[in-house]
From TrEMBL:
UniProtKB keywords: Exonuclease, Hydrolase, Nuclease
EC id: 2.7.7.7
Keyword Nuclease: yes
Domain Exonuclease: 59-240
Molecular function as annotated in GO: exonuclease activity
SMART domains from the UniProt entry: EXOIII
Keyword Hydrolase: yes
Domain of life: Bacteria
Any matching Pfam family: RNase_T
Reactions catalysed, as given in the entry: DNA(n) + a 2'-deoxyribonucleoside 5'-triphosphate = DNA(n+1) + diphosphate
Stated name of the protein: DNA-directed DNA polymerase
InterPro entries found in the cross-reference section: DnaQ, Ribonucl_H, RNaseH-like_sf, RNaseH_sf
């Protein structure tokens, strides 16, 4: 996970609060008719669970990207981590982690963050060779991410470059949930200016509030696992098993 600068992070948080619900079932049905790339068409044809489905019955997959920067139009994905899960189980045996040869320059500033070097990507596969596998892993599941615009925008941009089609899907954003559970994003960021670090909704700080262990950051697979565990803790603490998925996705 490549963190935003403080001002960008706050602005994105405001955008999350202003998001609107879509009729995802109808949207997927429409996109299944118009999509041409076979794996993407199959992704949409699988459909999406109704918003009334209990969260305890929803198959999910935690997803995290490491990238060469923060702009999906100028930067690219350099690693993908995903972990299939539900709110009661994390399927580590089915987790996937791919290092990818980036389509754009690997900046030293991003190498310092995620530790993926030029030698590590020299023989790595191109994103195009993983598209079908990735879409297959996401098919039929609700994506879980911490600050989901990163994953949504980078995946959308990457697919547009390679197959000339973007992608749309509902997400459970654990950052947005934590903002909801701690009352107000604006209050959180104001308090962070006053060094009230316990109010931060970054992934590591959010996990600390639920007494989850510390994991080293900026490895896509570890961050995906950390996000999966955070969602389970959030649901166990703040929700019930009969909460409908429509109450927490966007």
């Amino acid at each position: 996970m490549f963190y935003l600068a403080k001002k960008q992070f706050a602005a994105q948080g405001d955008a999350i609060l202003q998001g609107k619900q879509l009729d995802w079932s109808s949207r997927f049905a429409l996109l299944a008719k118009t999509s041409k790339y076979p794996a993407l068409k199959a992704f949409y044809q699988q459909g999406v669970v109704p918003p009334s489905t209990l969260i305890s019955e929803v198959p999910m997959v935690a997803l995290d990207f490491e990238t060469t920067g923060l702009d999906p139009n100028q930067d690219s994905i350099v690693s993908i981590g995903l972990v299939p899960m539900s709110i009661s189980r994390i399927r580590c045996n089915a987790a996937r982690h791919w290092i990818i040869k980036p389509e754009t320059r690997l900046h030293s500033s991003s190498v310092v963050v995620h530790g993926i070097t030029h030698s590590a990507v020299a023989d790595a596969p191109d994103f195009s060779s993983l598209i079908d596998k990735l879409l297959g892993c996401l098919q039929g599941k609700i994506v879980v991410a911490h600050h989901s615009p990163i994953e949504q925008r980078f995946l959308n941009a990457a697919l547009k470059r390679h197959i000339h089609e973007g992608i749309e899907f509902p997400v459970i954003d654990t950052m947005a949930l934590e903002a909801r559970f701690t009352r107000s994003i604006r209050k959180i960021f104001w308090r962070s200016l006053l060094a009230r670090q316990s109010e931060s909704i970054r992934l590591t700080d959010s996990r600390t509030r639920y007494h989850l262990p510390y994991y080293r950051q900026h490895n896509a697979l570890t961050d995906a696992l950390a996000c999966a565990e955070l969602l389970q803790a959030q649901c166990a603490t703040n929700l019930t098993a009969d909460t409908p998925i429509g109450a927490i996705w966007s």
